[in-house]
Amino acid sequence: DQQVKQNSPSLSVQEGRISILNCDYTNSMFDYFLWYKKYPAEGPTFLISISSIKDKNEDGRFTVFLNKSAKHLSLHIVPSQPGDSAVYFCAASKIGNNDMRFGAGTRLTVKP
Amino acid sequence: EAQVTQNPRYLITVTGKKLTVTCSQNMNHEYMSWYRQDPGLGLRQIYYSMNVEVTDKGDVPEGYKVSRKEKRNFPLILESPSPNQTSLYFCASSLAGAGIPNTEAFFGQGTRLTVV
Question: Which residues of A touch B94 (CB under 8 A)?
Answer without folding.
Answer: 98
